[in-house]
Specification:
Blueprint lengths: L6 H13 L9 H12 L5 E2 H8 L5 H13 L4 E5 L2 E4 L1 H29 L2
Antiparallel strand pairs: 1-3, 2-3
Length: about 120
């Protein structure tokens, strides 16, 4: 597995979007992490255990399996290729790009708020 996922940053971004009332997609930490793990391994089969290396830090085992079945697979963001193996789809890559953009927006908004706080 190449790359790293910063769980603290992902959690902060998800909480920011939740504060705006967006609880799915960019506001769902489980969704964010699953998509990022799949994206990091684009073109390869991702084992469920690879996803759990990151998600076990923030969620129960059962909730991740449920999220995979009810959101990721049903939305067409990933394909199940074998028992416990997944590959990201083109639609999943679009979702991953959206998550990158949402993270950039979070950092811009945070920077803007910091500048506003410093204004007299």
């Amino acid at each position: 597995m190449s790359g790293r996922i910063d769980i603290k940053t992902e959690k902060a971004v998800a909480e920011f979007y939740q504060s705006l009332g967006i609880i799915n997609g960019p506001g769902d930490i489980q969704y964010r992490i699953i998509i990022k793990v799949l994206e990091m391994n684009e073109g390869e089969v991702v084992e469920f255990s690879d996803i759990r290396k990151y998600t076990d830090l923030i969620a129960d085992r059962g909730s991740i399996g449920s999220k995979m079945k009810t959101v990721i697979l049903l939305s067409g963001l990933a394909n199940k290729v074998k028992r416990g193996g997944y590959t990201i789809t083109e639609k999943g890559m679009i979702a991953a790009d959206y998550l990158h953009n949402s993270t950039e927006f979070y950092f811009k908004a945070k920077k803007t708020l910091a500048m506003i706080d410093r204004m007299p």
